[in-house]
Automatic annotation (TrEMBL):
<feature type="coiled-coil region">
    <location>
        <begin position="535"/>
        <end position="562"/>
    </location>
</feature>
<protein>
    <submittedName>
        <fullName>Helicase HerA-like domain-containing protein</fullName>
    </submittedName>
</protein>
<dbReference type="InterPro" id="IPR027417">
    <property type="entry name" value="P-loop_NTPase"/>
</dbReference>
<feature type="domain" description="Helicase HerA-like C-terminal">
    <location>
        <begin position="121"/>
        <end position="625"/>
    </location>
</feature>
<feature type="region of interest" description="Disordered">
    <location>
        <begin position="56"/>
        <end position="81"/>
    </location>
</feature>
<feature type="coiled-coil region">
    <location>
        <begin position="11"/>
        <end position="54"/>
    </location>
</feature>
<keyword id="KW-0175">Coiled coil</keyword>
<dbReference type="InterPro" id="IPR033186">
    <property type="entry name" value="HerA_C"/>
</dbReference>
<dbReference type="InterPro" id="IPR051162">
    <property type="entry name" value="T4SS_component"/>
</dbReference>
<dbReference type="Pfam" id="PF05872">
    <property type="entry name" value="HerA_C"/>
</dbReference>
């Protein structure tokens, strides 16, 4: 075979290109080996530092990593040449590993682009849509961009037909219903991370807790709320919580519907009254003193305005699962600016809604996309002062509700606000910047770092250096394994990043088809009315019995007095008769009547029988009667 003709310009050019590519390949291989060596060294240094910390030895500040420039070539991967040329903490191989870790075959939500000194537009950070029901955490200090992250996730979920529920304490999320406003700064940022930003609005339904504020009223009956959640709201201890459970049991057994707080107060008042003491004793384990404490807490709670959150019509949580006519999911925002001073009630009410979803939804197992994603804002309020039973109920709900097709994302400031048993159930994490101004903050920061998989980042430092709208991300892959830790610049929401104008919210609420069902509160017969009627009947019976007793006493007194009067009258009559008889007897010898009864001698002669015979003869002679 003859030697190639090196004088041919085409052959010479091909040979030169081959030599250049071979040299670049060897250089890239050398750089890859060097990067792997540096990564191994960094891992060893980190392990050694942890060992020294565990042993209590002083830890020297690590030297900053030395970035080596990486020459880009036409044959190199796109991710390796898009903003990662040695400017950040990750090597080209590590960037490639991140790209591979966030490449999925199923539909995804786009979180943003990898940051490696600058944004790497070709290294997109995503989360599989099917993994959104494996729960997650969005954490970070105030002002680091948690709300915008939540808004961006909600918009993408709704666009893919997944309904979303989120609490909106300050009204900042309401902008999701209004198309966003473009600006050069915004477009520059979105282009840098590979986002084709366009303004868009999502179909939004506004709700108001108890009807306070704008939105369709969301209420719950006290019976449905239950003793466990109500004890959390009232701040009861475990003994009082158990006692309140007995009161609920008594009401249920006796058909006393607990609709609002006045019903529960009526039951407690009845049990501590003279009429209900016997029934209180039969309950067992419920003392009068404990019932009194619960009653006082209820009165204080109601006086603070919390009574409006309980009542009817009771809200059906299936309303949160609705879709728009075009198939997009509806974003349900619970506007709660009016209850910002009642954090325990707000967070516990959200837990009630989640528990209701768990109660009524059927089992669906693993699905291609969630039936609902529930964003639990200000999650730390839920766990502050929570009893063991309450925390256990939360853990169980979070663990099991996944099989109902519901994903839960807790939104809070630091992961330490969420109990470890709950954190263990969370598959995805978006951690915004943390601040360490105090020893407690530094301790919390180290605890947060310790919960992440190993990576090429010095997370304790990176978490304090994250800019607004940036986060450390790791999610659950389709295979159920965690993805590589990625410093991410997050996508910008397509809706307005300020609150929607009040006039637009009012118009949306007025046009809501739910307003006719839930807009007006109703007051049906419940425990308060039943017990009031019972106590009124008892009072009436007692009053009638008292009146009858009083009448009987009055009649007896009247009879006694009448007998005394009759006795006195009889005595007076007898006395008068005796006096009369005495006087009569005294005057019997000298009276005119006595004197007239004595006959004179002439009367005695004339009255004699002889005289009468003589006179009769004379008279017959005179009148001629004697001849007959």
């Amino acid at each position: 075979m003859s030697a190639p003709d090196t004088t041919d310009p085409a052959v010479a050019a091909a040979e030169a290109e081959l030599a250049r590519l071979r040299a670049e390949s060897e250089a890239a291989e050398a750089q890859l080996k060097a990067a792997q060596a540096r990564a191994a060294l960094a891992t060893a240094e980190a392990d050694a530092a942890r060992a020294r910390i565990d042993a209590g030895a002083p830890v020297a500040e690590p030297d900053p990593p030395v970035a080596e420039p990486v020459e880009a070539s036409p044959g190199a991967g796109r991710a390796a040449i898009s903003g990662s040329e040695g400017a950040g903490p990750l090597t080209a191989a590590q960037v490639q590993a991140v790209v591979a870790g966030y490449t999925f075959a199923t539909p995804t939500l786009d979180l943003g682009a990898l940051m490696n000194g600058t944004a790497v537009a070709d290294a997109q950070i995503r989360i599989p849509l099917a993994m959104m029901n494996r729960h997650g955490l969005v954490a970070g200090a105030t002002g680091t961009g948690k709300t915008r992250t939540l808004q961006g996730l909600a918009e993408q979920l709704a666009a893919k037909g997944v309904p979303v529920f989120a609490a909106d304490i300050k009204g900042d999320l309401s902008g999701v219903a209004t198309p966003g406003e473009s600006s050069e700064k915004l477009l520059e940022r979105t282009r840098a991370i590979g986002q084709d930003w366009k303004p868009a609005a999502s179909v939004t339904e506004y709700y108001a807790l108890g009807g306070i504020g704008k939105g369709v009223p969301v209420r719950a009956t006290v019976s449905a709320f239950g003793p466990l959640l109500l004890s959390k709201v009232l701040g009861l201890n475990e003994t009082q919580e158990s006692s309140l459970g007995l009161v609920f049991h008594y009401a249920d057994r006796h058909g006393l519907a607990l609709v609002d707080l006045s019903d529960l107060r009526a039951v407690l008042s009845y049990l501590t009254s003279d009429e209900g003491k016997a029934e209180l004793k039969d309950l067992g384990g419920l003392s009068t003193a404990t019932a009194g404490v619960i009653l006082r807490e209820l009165i204080t709670f109601a006086d603070g305005g919390a009574d409006v959150f309980f009542g009817e019509p009771e809200f059906d949580v299936r309303e949160f699962l609705r879709a728009a006519p075009d198939g997009a999911g509806i974003i349900s925002l619970l506007e709660v600016p009016g209850v910002a001073d009642k954090p325990a009630l707000f967070s516990t009410f959200l837990m009630y809604l989640l528990a209701e979803l768990f109660e009524i939804l059927p089992e669906v197992g693993d699905v291609d996309k969630p039936k609902l994603v529930f964003f639990f804002d200000e999650a730390h309020l839920l766990f502050t002062g929570a009893s063991k039973d309450f925390t256990a109920a939360i853990v169980q709900t979070v663990r099991l509700i996944r099989s109902k097709g519901v994903g839960v994302f807790f939104v809070t400031q630091t992961p330490k606000d969420v109990p470890s048993d709950v954190l263990a159930q969370l598959g995805s994490r978006v951690q915004h910047a943390l601040r360490a101004f105090t020893p407690d903050d530094a301790k919390a920061l180290r605890a947060t770092v310790g919960t992440y998989p190993r990576s090429g980042y010095d997370l304790e430092r990176v978490l304090q250096e994250l800019g607004t709208g940036e986060a450390i991300v790791t999610v659950m892959s389709e295979k159920g394994a965690p993805t590589p830790v990625a410093w991410t610049r997050l996508r910008a929401p397509q809706g307005l990043m300020t609150p929607t104008p009040d006039a637009a919210i009012d118009a949306a609420v007025t046009a809501s088809p739910l307003l006719a069902t839930y807009g007006t509160a109703i007051d049906r017969e419940s425990a308060r009315e039943i017990l009031t009627a019972r106590m009124n009947a008892a009072d009436a019976a007692a009053a009638a019995e008292e009146a009858a007793l009083a009448k009987a006493k009055a009649d007896a007194e009247f009879a006694k007095q009448q007998a005394a009067i009759d006795k006195a009258a009889a005595a007076a009559d007898r006395k008068a008769q005796a006096e009369y008889d005495r006087l009569l007897k005294k005057t019997s010898g000298t009276s005119r009547t006595t004197r007239s009864s004595q006959k004179s001698p002439l009367e005695q002669i004339l009255g004699s029988k002889s005289t009468q015979t003589i006179l009769n003869g004379v008279i017959r002679g005179m009148f001629g009667t004697g001849r007959r």
